[in-house]
Amino acid sequence: MSKDVAVADLDEAAARAELTRLAREIGRANAAYHGADAPEISDADYDALKRRNAEIEARFPHLKRTDSPSDQVGVAPAEGFEKVRHDVPMLSLGNAFTDEDVVDFMRGVRKFLGLAEDAPLDVTAEPKIDGLSLSLRYEGGRLVRAATRGDGTEGENVTANARTIADIPHALTGPAPEVLEVRGEVYMAHDDFAALNARQAAAGERTFANPRNAAAGSLRQLDPAVTAARPLRFFAYAWGAHSEPVAETQSGALARLAQLGFRVNPLTKTCPTTDDMLAHYRAIEAQRATLPYDIDGVVYKVDDLGLQRRLGYRSTTPRWAIAHKFPAQLAWTRLEAIDIQVGRTGALSPVARLHPVTVGGVVVSNATLHNEDYIAGRDASGNPIRGGKDIRVGDWVQVYRAGDVIPKVADVDLSKRPADAVPYVFPTACPECGSYAIREPGDAVRRCTGGLVCPAQAVEKLKHFVSRAAFDIDGLGAKIVEELYQDGWVREPADIFALEARYGPGNLTQLKNREGWGEKSAAKLFAAIDERRTIPLARLIFALGIRHVGEVVAATIARHYGTWEAFLAAMDAAEVGQGAAWEDLLNTDGVGAVIARALVTTVHQEAERASIDRLAAQLREIVPPQAQASDSPVAGKTVVFTGTLEKMTRAEAKARAEALGAKVAGSVSAKTDLVVAGPGAGSKAAKAAELGIETIDEDAWLALIGAA
Q: Which is nearest to 446 in space by CA: 507, 515, 374?
């Protein structure tokens, strides 16, 4: 048995099997601990499993699983919880790590709103609680539903558990909107955490690692009685769906939530200047060690809710808020190896394999090394970084971790460098398929040229295809995709939709007899796959995994072309650098030459196009994007802004137009419906006149959209 064999004596096949076994055993232990609150093994046994897993990954880094226990804390959502779709997405916050980041944030807010540097702009600053986000929906003043954040769009229904938390009112006090969704953070105070661990230890049960894990595990118990026995607390700080305005300012809304019976953080302060924001950040940081709960930074929010609405949102974060994280935590350890991982776009990413070290309460054994320039001690322009010190295997390196970001290697202690340490030579061939790995001019990354021939790229593309923002097939995660690829069952996306025909009715035995599968689980997977035969156009474009095409660009492309057929026809007609179809693609606001070239090149590649066509043939319906405001006078129209806008910035005008269902283009063409021209409009206004396109000024635009 491989579990009895020393790591040094394992061959690759035995190591892969052992990693599978360890993932299963550690996963079962995590589920028992975090999910059922019933530990099955001792701390020592658990730690031994984790250590063995880490040792095998260090020796065989290319075998590291996507669901590696080394990268996991806690457990996935329990099957017993009903899923809840949030009426208003629970978005994450952008991060600031330095004072300059905060200054840039405020500069960006003022620029978007067109505010002068000396114009009043109040901002609230409040501690960022290190807990678990929770949404509470009240109807008629009574709590009707509680849900975790989940993926921001869909969370878990934990209503019964939330009702056991004393800080969460079952009924609101005083007049309240008919519908009000209150959001905040569930946490555990230090004293309560210590008392809980003492009780756990006295009962011979496993203790918790930190208050956040204890709070998260306690809230997600299938038995509300277990949650009730845990000392959970709640701070309210925001709201989601509501039938009437809560207040006119962020600070006013917090005061209103307090009146309705919620606890709000007493350290929240309204700051009129950036200097005041940073001063309050320092004041909170100075109290951090003495606060009765864990915090990991300070959150800044524009106070005026009208300005918040104008600023709006990016794809995943609001423009009106940012989290200022506390300084990165540091540790020194030995660099034991440098491994290369190959991503879905062929990027060769160096990973530092470290002697495990605790950084900020988390055991770190891997860290990013960015790219070959970073290892060599220079930036992309050839200028020295770290004083020009390169990074070598055997070095004593400084590791830092800020918030939840990936650990990074920051510095090298040359005084401890081994005499036999040699400069690291970055590979010029792909470690997975042997193809040339080239670095194009201007690119900081070296990439494998193997394409679909490269198994690493193929697997990563498949993982991307089933990821949450793409096809998001329930039950078909990265781990299953990896196994199906290794066994030859799935080589490209279309194969996923052919699984039932190949291994379903009549052939079901082949799937249900796989380890970890049964007839019921196989049938559920086939049903989940079939459900995704209907897919929104933006998700499909994103799922293709085209370089430079993220969620935002995919949505932009989907809105521009409207249908899958129109998108493909346009890509087929486009020639890089020339022609009407190419110009139309470049005319799409937010699409530059780099993105356009990636789109056109991908569709024109014979093997890629054949794979895309096979996928499309398996789909039932590709749903066109819906205009966000179909009753708007500009919904579905293509609008170009030119010249100087005096009553709103260009960025705000674009955001407002898109929110009303319009398409915003960067240049005028025959497809343009409307040009909004301010003072200084030049060639675009002239071309609009030449083409007979309607042109209006800013006042007429504001009147048209009802904002005058």
A: 374
3-state secondary structure of 196: helix
Residue by residue, DSSP assigns 93-118 as --EE-SHHHHHHHHHHHHHHHT--TT
Verify that 659 and 541 share a domain, yes or no.
no
* Catalytic, out of 50, 64, 128, 684: 128
Tell me the percentage of the chain whose pLDDT exceeds 90.
41
Q: Where are the alpha helices (DSSP H) in 534-692?
A: 537-543, 551-561, 564-573, 580-586, 593-604, 606-618, 650-659, 683-691
pLDDT at 403 over 60: no
> Residue 93 pLDDT > 70, yes or no?
yes
Is the C-alpha dihedral spanning 383, 389, 392, 396 positive or negative? negative
Nearest to 374 by CA among 416, 337, 412: 412
Closest alpha carbon to 596 in 640, 537, 548 = 548
β-strands 674-677, 638-642: how paired? parallel
Residue span of the structural domain in which 645 resides:
638-704
Model confidence pLDDT, tens digit, residues 690-706: 889 999 988 888 888 87
Radius of gyration over every alpha carbon of the chain, rounded to an integer in angstroms: 27
Residue 128 falls in the annotated catalytic set: yes
From 15, 41, 76, the end of a domain falls on 76
Residues 469, 354 share a domain? no
Phi (first) and psi of residue 210, to 5 degrees: -160, 165
What residue type is assigned to position 643 of the chain?
G
